[in-house]
Amino acid sequence: PGAMPQAPAKEIPREEGEGGSRRSSWGLLVTAGVGGTLVALYAVTTPFVTPALRKVCLPFVPATAAQIRNVLKMLENRSGSLVDIGSGDGRVVIAAAKKGFQAVGYELNPWLVWYSRYRAWRDGVHQNTKFYISDLWKVSFSHYSNVVVFGVPQMMPQLEKKLEEELECNARIIACRFPFPCWIPDHTAGEGIDTVWAYDLKHSRGCETKSLEITPETES
User: Fold this and answer.
1) Which GO CC terms are listed, alphabetically (predicted)?
2) Which of 9, 49, 140, 204 is deepest in the core (most CB within 10 A)?
3) With a threshold of 0.85, does the pTM exceed it?
């Protein structure tokens, strides 16, 4: 008789419990979405950031229309295979292929290589072009007679030495934006950032072949 009656347990309203469950589900979805976005962003940006972490950074800067015209001018009356070192989105390779060259591009960024292949297919020159994902320092360019380079000043001395060791005497090297430090250009086109310098290796290396003149001996 002296015991106090216990208060009944307070029930949680059904609406509040369902609202908390919905908020928890939305939280999981938002977390998953943000995580997926970060993963995708990492996958896309890593190929662009990785080259910047190397000793020599070769950023992607698209060639201008004037630069491409100047490159093609330096290729007039030339034949043979062509390689673009650091081919970016493939526009130089594709332009050369349209002029009849068997053109190849080497690029470290896989996204740019895949886009280049698509552009070559779209422009109908995929049979005359090839694009490779590769570090230029690990590739031999010995079988190319025309070389196009969009470089940066830090890499030009080392690349000059590499090309001089690998290329044949009939090769022509076309540098865009920055010239080579030691070679003297045989031809120049454009001005400002659109300037291109063409080097005929037979002159830079001093390996010109001279025909032997045979003079008949005269009787004394």
Assistant:
1) mitochondrial membrane
2) 204
3) no
Q: What is the 3-state secondary structure (H, E, C) of the chain?
A: CCCCCCCCCCCCCHHHHHHHHHHHHHHHHHHHHHHHHHHHHHHHHHHHHHHHCCCCCCCCCCCCHHHHHHHHHHCCCCCCEEEEECCCCCHHHHHHHHCCCEEEEEECCHHHHHHHHHHHHHCCCHHHEEEEECCHHHCCCCCCCEEEEECCCCCHHHHHHHHHHHCCCCCEEEEECCCCCCCCCCEEECCHHHCEEEEEHHHHCCCCCCCCCCCCCCCC
The pLDDT value given to residue 220: 36
